[in-house]
Design goal:
The chain has 406 residues and is mostly helical. It has a domain at 104-211. It has helices at 2-23, 29-44, 57-80, 104-125, 129-135, 149-170, 174-189, 193-211, 220-238, 240-247, 259-281, 299-305, 329-360, 364-378, 389-392, 394-400.
């Protein structure tokens, strides 16, 4: 097992570095995808929790096939684009060439529309999740909003937030500040963790690559402080002793103020435990797309296409309190290892296409598509955002509404 794990990590490091060398840019999709999963595997190897069992030879072998599928998909498109690379000196995109001119009327009308839709959805749902939580109501985020329409609305909110942030930095008028506060408050009001995380990551990418480079070394003290506060808040809500019991911490004691690092560790590694459990121990019938598309297609379509599928998703979580399981589990449940490898091959090919399309045509539209896909790749260890309607439908808004920002 140790030899296979070391071999897998070495393969990831090799292709991540190779991709960085040929692109001369760390924010290429292959380096980011393989680099993040390499870090997750290294962290997992410390096994600070009894829930983090040794990765089985079957799991490691499957993961090796999966990551190589991404590499094959990426370099398949790369080789097709080789003739066009003769026209450019470097494969590193020149973000300074991007010109984004945002229509002010579009920003104003869109914000008022977002507010009106949020009010209408609140009336339709009989309130908002943050109020339900405060009152101890049984309803949750999943009970909020008009089905399917809410996903489209949230995707527009994320798309709009990118344009608004760019304009706010260029033109910090009071109304844009108020718009931005409103946009940030909406995912908080509806308690949508995934939408809020997506929003923050996408705006961070835009700021770093397009507006002003972020010196992450100077931010290290802030990051450490955020992790500490994350642990303190978690301890306040759950209780440190209870969390250590639930997560089955291997140690004997944990410093209250340093527990945030363990909280972060568990959230970064637990999905590997779920994947290992699913691949190694769980027997199940294939869903043939049901589980991949349940967060993307409207319920009426799912009911129509899978009316004969009566079984539910098998229980493969090593603990019900930890539910994140990366992008891998749904395609594996639907089509097995071959389906997962094919899906990962498609992601790799799409990643190369988007990156090199940006390099060859450095336009606002291509940059926005790049930002959304980069966020999806960065969070692949957490969830499959490519088939999550509020995130992936941003691609449609970017294409359809491009006349309002370029």
């Amino acid at each position: 097992m140790i030899i296979l794990l070391i071999l897998l990590i070495c393969i990831l490091i090799f292709f991540a570095l190779f991709s960085y060398i040929i692109h001369r840019h760390i924010f290429n999709f292959q380096t980011i995808f393989l680099g993040i999963w390499c870090v997750i595997l290294i962290l997992y190897s410390f096994q600070l929790s009894y829930l983090l069992e040794d990765l089985s030879p079957k799991t490691l072998s499957y993961m090796m096939l999966v990551f190589l599928s991404f590499v094959m998909g990426y370099f398949y498109i790369f080789t097709l684009n080789l003739p066009s690379y003769k026209r450019v000196r470097s494969l590193k995109p020149n973000f300074s060439k991007i010109k984004i001119r945002i229509n002010e009327i579009f920003l104003d009308i869109s914000f008022y529309l977002i507010v009106i839709i949020t009010i209408i959805q609140g009336i339709y749902s009989g309130g908002y999740p943050i109020i339900w939580l405060a009152l101890g109501d049984h309803k949750t985020y999943f009970d909020f909003g008009i089905p399917t329409f809410n996903g489209l609305f949230l995707s527009f909110l994320l798309f709009y937030s990118m344009l608004l942030y760019i304009e706010l930095v260029k033109n910090p008028r009071k109304k844009y500040i108020l718009y931005f506060i409103g946009v940030i408050l909406i995912p908080i009001i509806i308690i949508s963790r995934q939408v809020l995380i997506t929003l923050i990551i996408q705006l961070t990418i835009i700021h770093h690559l397009y507006i002003r480079r972020i010196n992450f070394s100077r931010l290290l003290p802030v990051i450490i402080l955020v992790i500490i506060l994350f642990g303190v808040v978690g301890n306040f809500r759950t209780g440190l002793d209870n969390f250590l019991y639930i997560s089955q911490y291997k140690g004997e004691q944990m410093n209250y103020f340093l527990s945030g690092f363990y909280w972060a560790y568990i959230y970064l590694t637990m999905q590997l435990a779920h994947i290992n459990n699913l691949i190694t121990y769980i027997d199940f019938d294939y869903g043939y797309g049901k589980f991949m598309f349940e967060s993307f297609l409207p319920t009426v379509f799912l009911d129509f296409f899978y009316s004969n599928v009566t079984y539910s998703k098998p229980v493969f979580l090593v603990h019900p309190n930890f539910t994140v399981s990366s992008y891998m589990t749904s395609p594996f449940l639907d089509f097995g290892i071959l389906g997962l490898c094919f899906y990962t091959f498609i992601i790799g090919a799409l990643s190369c296409y988007v990156y090199h399309n940006l390099r060859l045509e450095t336009t606002a539209k291509n940059f926005m598509i790049y930002v959304v896909l980069l966020q999806i790749i960065m969070m692949s260890f957490f969830v499959d955002f490519l088939l999550y309607l509020p995130v992936s439908f941003q691609f449609c808004w970017i294409l359809v509404l491009k006349k309002y920002y370029q």
